[in-house]
């Protein structure tokens, strides 16, 4: 079954990290991606630009309304995602627990609706 692993982190915390700490975090992602590719479970993923670059779109009464940034203020923001093909939820949870962001943020594991 395919799962989306939504990586939620505090952008302010991420931006406050030193260059060497940032490099260490990125190296952790590289190692995770290599391991999951070798296991054959990684199907894709991307790092997202910060919420300051986001645009929120809503349609109300036929009118398109856009706003800068995220719709809801939260402590953690979605910073990226991976798509994995796991045996089951336990496997997907194990895969998610190995992501570097699990140490300082939250990983939301969500099944992909297969039609």
Question: Main traits of this protein?
Answer:
Alpha-Beta Plaits, 3 helices, 115 residues, 4-stranded antiparallel β-sheet, alpha+beta
Describe this structure in words.
With 115 residues, this protein is an alpha+beta fold. The chain has a single domain (2-111), classed as Alpha-Beta Plaits (2-Layer Sandwich), CATH 3.30.70.1060. Helix content is 31%, strand content 36%. The chain has helices at residues 11-16, 19-39, 89-97; strands at residues 2-9, 42-47, 55-60, 63-68, 77-85, 106-111. The strands form 2 sheets. The protein has a 4-stranded antiparallel beta sheet. A two-stranded antiparallel ribbon has the order 3-4. Strand 3 and strand 4 (63-68) form a beta hairpin. The longest helix is centred in the first third of the chain and has 21 residues, at 19-39.
Strand and helix layout:
Blueprint: E1 2-9, H1 11-16, H2 19-39, E2 42-47, E3 55-60, E4 63-68, E5 77-85, H3 89-97, E6 106-111
Antiparallel strand pairs: 1-5, 1-6, 2-5, 3-4
């Amino acid at each position: 079954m395919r799962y989306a692993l939504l990586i939620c982190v505090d952008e302010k915390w991420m931006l406050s990290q030193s260059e060497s700490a940032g490099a260490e975090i990125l190296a952790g992602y590289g190692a995770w991606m290599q391991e999951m590719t070798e296991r054959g479970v990684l199907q894709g993923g991307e790092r997202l630009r910060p919420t300051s670059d986001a645009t929120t779109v809503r349609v109300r009464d036929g009118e398109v309304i856009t706003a800068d940034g995220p719709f809801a203020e939260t402590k953690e923001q979605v910073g990226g995602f991976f798509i994995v093909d796991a045996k089951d939820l336990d496997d997907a949870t194990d895969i998610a627990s190995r992501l570097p962001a699990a140490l300082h943020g939250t990983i939301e594991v969500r099944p992909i609706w297969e039609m």
